[in-house]
Write a structure and sequence with these properties.
Blueprint (H helix, E strand, L loop, with lengths): L1 H23 L1 H4 L2 E5 L14 E6 L10 E5 L7 E11 L5 E7 L10 E2 L3 E9 L3 H8 L1 H37 L1
Antiparallel strand pairs: 1-2, 2-7, 3-4, 3-7, 4-5, 5-6
Helix pairs in contact: 1-4, 3-4
Length: about 180
């Protein structure tokens, strides 16, 4: 029974490590940046708690209708995901600002400098944000990677100690 329990625990640990890798490394390797939707401004297309995967985009290639993520003009550390509804140019045909709007918002946003565009939303997983935030946190790393690794090391050390003790017993009784 103990072997079965250890096998099940090992499989669960492996699944947790694979989940961590899949959630954090695979999208980045594909050039995607995961973001969790925190507000309802894009509902129903992007519900609160959805995870969006943003692919980098040359800002000048954005089109009306694209859903883009950009840095807030008021606070660069805040990312906003809204739909492009228009552009402003410098009078010579060069786009300088995007006009965006949340699908659920009644009014357009303030113009967004073209350089603030991070990328275009390519994929969405509704309601996966709670899991994503936990997996991506330091605690998630500890629970899903360091914890299982420490358990596996401890299990191996315990097995080696048992082998050494059994070896000593068998050699001790033969003498």
């Amino acid at each position: 029974m103990r072997r079965f329990a250890n096998a099940v625990l090992s499989v669960l640990i492996l699944l947790m490590v694979l989940l961590f890798i899949a959630w954090n490394l695979v999208p980045r390797a594909m050039g995607l940046h995961p973001e969790v939707v925190l507000t309802g401004s894009m509902e129903p297309r992007l519900p609160v708690g959805a995870v969006t995967f943003v692919h980098s985009l040359q800002p000048e290639s954005a089109r009306v209708g694209d859903v883009v993520t950009y840095r807030s003009p008021k606070n660069n550390s805040i990312l906003i995901t809204h739909r492009v509804v228009g552009f402003l140019d410098d009078g010579r045909g060069n786009r300088t600002f995007l006009i965006t709007k949340g699908d659920a918002n009644p009014a357009e946003d303030n113009p967004v400098p073209i350089g603030n565009v991070v990328g275009e939303v390519k994929y969405t997983i509704p309601h996966a944000g709670a899991v994503a935030r936990r997996v991506s946190s330091r605690l998630g790393f500890v629970v899903l990677v360091l914890g299982p690794a420490m358990y596996l090391v401890a299990a191996e050390v315990s097995s080696m100690i048992k082998v050494v003790k059994d070896h000593r017993r068998s050699h001790g009784s033969a003498a």
